[in-house]
Write a structure and sequence with these properties.
Number of strands: 10
Strand content: 5-15%
């Protein structure tokens, strides 16, 4: 089914955010515990943390900027131009005009470490057509990896960009799959992790993660890693926070990190269904993560309209 117009109406207000020097020291080595203790001891000395009213990270995934906003610069739009593309080259040097895709596409494309390295091709960005691991670029001639969504399909996302800001030169922190990127959302690093382990510290005993060290050496370990997180820094500074996620769904960032999964901070891991209720009841913490899961993630091949509705519902609650 192709859905062209999403059902939720936007509420747009102007809100002021005071935020000074909120710093995540995620570049620390993952197991440098003494250094982490030193950092946490200094966090409450950072000026301005008490001025934070509300910061909300809404975590979606697996869409490129060009896939979502390639139509931003269309003639007659009167939008401020951004850096986006309307075509891409393949490994044979052929240029593909990005095709308009339906709201719910037919399949995903490969987005693991190996596929990213191959597709990027040392910066030439011309090998997406070679993706053939699990979910290829091209199934039955559809070449969906050379595709984009329309402005009509994402009218609300476009409206947010027009009224607020749009990060056209904003790139993934790590060129690989979900688990490492979800670690980045809370720790500004992945601890070298480059592969998926959907259930983290609750994984079966034989599960493994691939870990790449600073020298390019590859090893494996059980998918229950540990590192300093923004949650630890907020806690040390007395800044309230909460992590909203469907707890029955994989890729819960708190579930991936041992001291969060098995320590006292786990109480802050709550169902994403509670987010709007908390906002409406005036119980929104100073910093919140709202991790969309399942069909709400914007992840292909799910309906982008469904994911947009999830976002709009959350933002409308905040703006109200």
């Amino acid at each position: 089914m192709t859905v062209s117009i999403c059902r939720f109406k936007l509420k747009l207000t102007v809100a002021a955010l005071t935020m000074s020097a909120l710093i995540c020291q995620g570049a620390l080595p993952a197991r440098a515990q003494s250094s982490q203790a030193d950092v946490l001891a200094q966090v409450n000395k950072i000026p301005g943390l008490s001025n934070i009213k509300h910061v909300v990270f809404i975590v979606k995934e697996n869409r490129s900027f060009d896939n979502m906003f390639s139509h931003w610069n269309d003639a007659g739009s009167n939008r401020t131009p951004v850096n986006t593309a309307s075509s891409g080259s393949d490994s044979n040097g052929l240029a593909h005009t990005l095709q308009d895709l339906p709201d719910a596409v037919s399949h995903d494309i490969c987005h693991g470490w190996g596929c990213f390295v191959q597709a990027i091709d040392n910066g030439r960005m011309d090998a997406f057509d070679l993706q053939n691991v699990g979910v290829p670029c091209n199934m039955n001639g559809d070449f969906e990896c050379y595709g984009r969504q329309t402005a009509t399909q994402m009218a609300n996302y476009f409206t947010y960009g027009e009224n607020f800001a749009l990060g056209d030169n904003y790139f993934t922190a790590i060129k690989t799959a979900t688990t490492p990127n979800h670690l980045y959302t809370v720790a500004a690093q992945s601890g070298g992790v480059i592969t998926n382990a959907p259930f983290g510290c609750d994984s079966p005993p034989n599960d493994e993660l691939a870990v790449l060290d600073a020298n390019g050496n590859l090893s494996t370990e059980y998918p229950c890693v540990d590192m300093l997180t923004l949650m630890d820094e907020l806690q040390a500074a007395g800044v309230s926070w909460r992590y909203y996620v469907n707890t029955q769904i994989p890729f819960n960032a708190m579930q991936l990190i041992s001291h969060l999964r098995y320590g006292p901070l786990w109480v802050n891991d709550v169902s994403d269904s509670q987010f709007v209720t908390d906002v409406q009841a005036g119980k929104l913490q100073q910093v919140s993560w709202l991790e969309a899961t399942g069909e709400a993630t914007d992840h292909p091949p799910y309906s982008l309209c469904f994911g947009e509705n999830y976002t709009v519902n959350a933002i409308n609650a905040i703006m109200n």
